[in-house]
Amino acid sequence: MDPRAQIASPVAVQPGWTRKTGLAKWNGLVRILVLRNLSIRYKGSALGFFWSLLTPALTIAMYAIFASILKFNRGQPAYLQYLVTGIIVWNFTAGTLNDSLFSIAGNANLVKKVSFPRAILPLSTALANCVNFLLTALPLALYLALTGTLHLRHVAWLAPAVALHVALCSGIALLAGTLNVFFRDVQHAVGVGQLAWFFLSPVFYGLDLQLGAVPVPDVWKGIVFVNPMTGILAMYRYALMGLPMVPPEWEAAVPGAWIAISALVSVAVLLLGMAVLRAGDRKFGDVL
Questions:
Q1: Which residues make Cβ contacts (< 8 Å) with residue 276, sequence separation at least 6?
Q2: 26 or 180, which is more confident?
Q3: I need a surface site. Which of 1, 7, 243, 264 has the fewest CB within 10 A?
Q4: Who contacts 179 (Cβ-Cβ below 8 Å, separation ≥6)?
Q5: In angstroms, rounded to a whole number, what is the distance separating the alpha carbons of residues 125 and 129?
Q6: 3-class secondary structure per residue, 106-135
Q7: 71 in a domain, yes or no?
Q8: CA 93/CA 40 separation, integer angstroms
Q9: Secondary structure class of 225 (helix, strand, coil)
C-alpha cells in the first residue's frame, strides 16, 4: 500500500481540522510519518531496526582500529571514547539535515491534496532521527561502561542536552525542508556546508584546541559557542563522561554563560525555522 494513502486516511475523516488547530491535534499523523521514515530507512534489510544498534558498534570498532593504526590520541587517554561520542552525536544532526531536504518537496502530492500543518513533515523527520539516535546511544553507553569512561554523576545534564539537540535539529529540518522547495541549490550547498560545520565543531578535537584557535582575548573566546554543536557536544560529554563543559583555564573568563550561548542559538534556529516555514507555507502548492 502506498504510504501516502495510509497518511491521508486519518486526515480525511476529520474535515473540521485546519492548519490553525495546532500540532497537538495531529499526534496520529506525526506518529505515522515518524514510523514511515523509520521503516523507509531499513526497508528491504534483513536486520531491520537492529541496524540502529549494530551501526554504532561497527563505528566504534572502525575508529578503534583507525586510532590504533595512526596512534592518534591527541594527548587524551580516553580519546577514542571522546571521538566516538562526538561522532554519534554529530550523526543525529547530519542525518536530520540530509533527510529533511526532501521532507516537503518529496511529498508534493500530499502537500497539494491534503490540508494539514506542513511543519509536521520536517518535524517528523527530525523525530525519526531522534528515535534512531536514542537507539544508537545504548551501545555507546555500554561501550563507555566497558571501557570505564562512563561517569554518570552529571547525568542530569543529559536531558537538557537532548532537548537542545532536538530543538536545533527541528529548526534545521524546518529550514532545509522549506528552502529546498524554493531553491533547489540548497541540496547542493548542504553537502559543502555540512562538511565545514563538522570541522568547525569539536567532534574529533578537544574544546581547548577550538578555543585556542580563536585569535581574540580570552573574554571573547566564547564566540565558538555561537556554533550550537560546540555547547551540545560539551553537554553530552559532561553528562556521559564527566568531562568539563568548559576547560578550567577559560572558565574564569565568563563562567557558565558560554553554554547558554549555544542554547540560545539552538532555540533561535528553531524559531527561525518555524518563521520561514510559515512564510512559505501558502506557496508550497504552487511551487510543487
A1: 174, 175, 178, 179
A2: 180
A3: 1
A4: 186, 276
A5: 6
A6: HHHHHHHHCCCCCCHHHHHHHHHHHHHHHH
A7: yes
A8: 19
A9: helix
Tell me if 16 is assigned to some domain. no
How many whole angstroms separate alpha carbon 54 and alpha carbon 158? Answer: 23
Q: Which among 242, 241, 270, 237 has a CA at the least distance from the CA of 90? A: 237
Segment 86-141, tens digit of pLDDT:
999 999 999 999 999 998 888 888 888 877 788 899 999 999 999 989 988 888 99
* Close Cβ partners of 274 (under 8 Å, ≥ 6 residues apart): 119, 171, 174
CA atoms within 13 A on the CB side of 249: 6
pTM (2 d.p.): 0.82
**Structural domain that includes position 271:** 3-8+26-287
Q: Check the CA dihedral 163-169-171-174 and report its sign.
A: negative
Q: How far apart are CA 96 and CA 99, in angstroms?
A: 5
% of the chain exceeding 90 in pLDDT: 41
Number of H helices, E strands in the chain: 13, 0
How many Cα neighbours within 13 Å face the side chain of 43?
8
The pLDDT of residue 37: 74
Of 204, 205, 175, 168, the residue nearest 190 (C-alpha) = 175
Domain count, the chain: 1
Distance, CA of 208 to CA of 148 (rounded, Å): 23
User: 9-23, 156-170, 230-244: which range is least confident on average?
Assistant: 9-23
Q: Residue 21 falls within a domain, yes or no?
A: no
Stretch among 67-71, 91-95, 141-145, 234-238 having the lowest mean pLDDT:
67-71
User: How many Cα atoms within 13 Å fall on the side-chain side of residue 116?
Assistant: 28
Determine the pLDDT at residue 23. 57
